[in-house]
TrEMBL record:
This is CAP-Gly domain containing linker protein family member 4. Residues 303-345 form the CAP-Gly domain. The keyword GTP-binding does not apply. SMART domains: ANK, CAP_GLY. Gene3D superfamilies: Ankyrin repeat-containing domain, CAP Gly-rich-like domain.
Amino acid sequence: MTIEDLPEPSLEGDSLIERERFLFPNSETSVTFSVAAAPMPSDCEFSFFDPNDAACQEILFNPETSVSELFAILRQWVPQVQQNIDIIGNEIIKRGCNVNDRDGLTDMTLLHYTCKSGAHGIGDVETAVKFATQLIDLGADSSLRSRWTNMNALHYAAYFDVPELISVILKNAKPKDVDATCSDFDFGTALHIAAFNLCTGAVKCLLEHGANPAFRNDKGQIPADVVPDPVDMPLEMADAAASAKEIKQILLDAVPLSCDISKAMIPNYDHVTGKAMLLSLGLKLGDRVVIAGQKVGTLRFCGTTEFASGQWAGIELDEPEGKNNGSVGKVQYFKCAPKCGIFAPLSKISKASDLKKSSVRSSSMRSSPLVKSKKIDVSHITSKVNSGDAFWQHFE
């Protein structure tokens, strides 16, 4: 049911707040509000709504500002809005809304928005936790799902890696709710969502609250199976590779011994020495190498690491285009200038001389079309600051 489906009140001359209170005073039937644009001051110099700005406050607290417009403000993925989720949310509630009413564009409730606003780097966890608790006390239903993403409040909290909100939700939920599935993630659970997006805090919190690490999605995968493979990650994502290794091991350790996890086991080539691997590739330390046919540098390290299983190459780049100084996670594997160090799987490096030979052969074979290699899709592994913007692209 949408707000337009409701009957007109018999009262005349009422303000907007009074009209909405007449329509659903503490109603058990939630409604979906029509879509509106976020209101902005006429002389505004910025493109987003700032609840700390006097002109924006005048709009925010104006009784004539509609609920649809307030929901539009909540959709803005900027710290100024997300860190004030409680102020904007309470303005919606003051207008007589049911706590489970929905935004017509995203089909999200206030609790959904609050779980999203706890994202580190853009929201405020403490504010989000307090407001989520308030909403639940007022009757917010954590099992409600957005019909566009099929995600409930727990799924959003897991996706945005907010363990504090996960605890609040599960404290007031039924035991089975921790393993509620989501069709947008192959009918996996919140634990699958957290594992797939490398949300370490969410993974640990869900396990502490009884999430099933052996639950299989529609593809037959347990959460450990959906953790991205560090070898498939771009070269600049060594930190993410370390998180992937940690999360996968946590999940594997949590799986009951009776469960068959052979497919999810972490491949281990640690018994193969770095020297042997280099010999098989015709390489040695000090050689000039090319990484993925792009970046050029000197091979300084080859061996096992703390951040991922298998053999990794450490390269000192000619230009400061790297990610570190030869260290990852406080472990120094080799030394170089800041931003000149980078790590890569051995499969992604080759001798610089081989690249030149390959270039000569390619230039002489003009009749052969150039075929670009397909990039591995790891776009989902990103800062949650960016992830919020990605969500809105589904609706705008």
